[in-house]
Amino acid sequence: MGIFERNDIAIDLGTVNTIVRNDMETTLFCEATCIALEKKYNSHRILAIGDSAKKMLGRTHNEIEVVNPLLNGAISDFETTKIFMNAILQKAKAGSLSPRVGISIPQNLTQVERHSLYEATMLAGAKEVLLIEDPFSASVGAGLDISTARAKMIIDAGGGLVEVSIISLNGLITSAFTKEAGDFIDFALVEYCRHNKNIGISKEMAENLKRKINVFAKNPTIHIGAKNLANSMPIECELDLEEFKGVILNSLYKIKDIIIEAIHNAPPQIAPDLIEDGATLTGGLALIPGIKDFLEKELRMQIHLTPDPLLDISKGVWQIMQDYESFEKSL
């Protein structure tokens, strides 16, 4: 059977966003990793998935549960993950054929977690499941040739994890990761508002603030709706985003430290490659204003931001699936 007759589905199953494609050019699904379930009579009925489900957070009654099935890239709820994967596959598959499914996963997943994801996807209707580690899918999707002896550094900055990897000859030389990623920054902004402003904001509001703050520019003053923690009443308040720079910088310094750790653990032979080629930055967190400039200044090396950092992993999964035999030993 030729590759064009196969029913292949590539999935970037992220802590914050899930991206699904069934060819190199078409993105079938690019929404929040979130599902809303109605709990009645000891069963669960899907009300919404993706962004529609995310909009229900904090607005539901007791019979509706809104769940993010992943935490820091790992399965936090097996049954919900199975339901979520089933809904995704139903949206993505063509015709009645059971699809071959490729899923990009963080390196730090345990064998138990990998088996859980594999089983959840098979139970959701897949014919075959290929688990592909993030550094490889991110590198291939970003257009890096990882088959040569010339080392490539990839910084995959996502919502649940920031993974820094150095790859050559289709193999991993060294890597390091931190969980102080996009979600961590969101919760830090929530806590900053709680302790310094005495206001309560949602994680979604914090996520919006994060994308407005530039650590290398003068930031504006904005107005938001929040909860006054002194009397629990709604309040419209003014926020000077300039004072939130420190919250963002704390996490960026952690990312810098992880990059240095990965370089420290690498053999000296790769130093000339990094000096000449620098590193490639991808992932949703790469969209934060100023992160590329910050890393270049702090590390004194070139940082290349990919054109579509949110889509690189799903593209890489698809490409690897089409030539899986070449990568299988490394994956």
From TrEMBL:
Keywords: ATP-binding, Cell shape, Cytoplasm, Nucleotide-binding. GO terms for molecular function: ATP binding. One of its GO terms (cellular component) is cytoplasm. It comes from the Bacteria. It is found in: Cytoplasm. Signal peptide: none annotated. GO terms for biological process: cell morphogenesis; regulation of cell shape. Its main location: cytoplasm. Belongs to the FtsA/MreB family. This is Rod shape-determining protein.
